TrEMBL record:
Superkingdom of the source species: Eukaryota
Biased composition (Pro residues): 170-185
Lineage of the organism: Eukaryota, Fungi, Dikarya, Basidiomycota, Agaricomycotina
Low complexity: bias regions: 213-227
Compositional bias (Basic residues): 187-205, 236-251
Protein name per Swiss-Prot or TrEMBL: Uncharacterized protein
Region span, Disordered: 165-251
Amino acid sequence: MDLMQSFDAILFPADGRPPHVVSLMTSPASFSNPHTPAQTNAARVPHPEVHMEYIAEDPNMRAWHYQTVEALDMMNKKFANPYIVYYPVVSRDGMPFPVNRTVRDIQEEVNKGRRGREDQLWRGNLVAAKFADDHFEQMMDASMADFPILKNYLATHVSPIRVTSALTPAPTPPTPPSLPPPPTPHQHQHQHQHQHPHQHQHQHQHPAPAPAPTTSTSAPATSAATTIPPPSPHGRIPRRRPPHAICRARR
């Protein structure tokens, strides 16, 4: 058995190029059958990472996953020759793979221009292989005659992986603080009373002084009026003496 064996597969490039046939390399891998330990089955491991850009190059880690295509929607019978779609999951820098524009265009064509969610789109280069049995043990050559089946499947199925960073909204810049509206006259008066309570207390503690008494120039006349003698029994009011005359009489 050859150490390296290749099979024809269909590549769906992520950069928008049309799908085309490529050579998919496989290497032998032996594993024990758990039901019959004495029997050892020989299988081949595919290497789709050769056709995947930006994929991690770690020999101790498998940086791709696969999705089986055994039937289409509304089918009640599986394919005699099923397919497997290989897609990348681990990139070199840890960033998400670019959206597969070829598959996205196929989905928009089938869905009449309606584009799917960003986090559900297929990403990276996709490699579709064909198998000779429904146990996926023997790979066989695929051709562009298998393209309509794979096109129908990719157009109606979203990617198995979810890229949450694709939906992360960009941070919005902070809005500058707005100035408060000017206070109304009633609010201004109420605020003035609350801000200056000591002024009103000072006014209550120190009442305004009483006005000074005014002097009158008619005080001598008033004194003289109080000294007017009573009327005489004859009904006549005696003649009022001037002040200086009263003083002379007292002397």
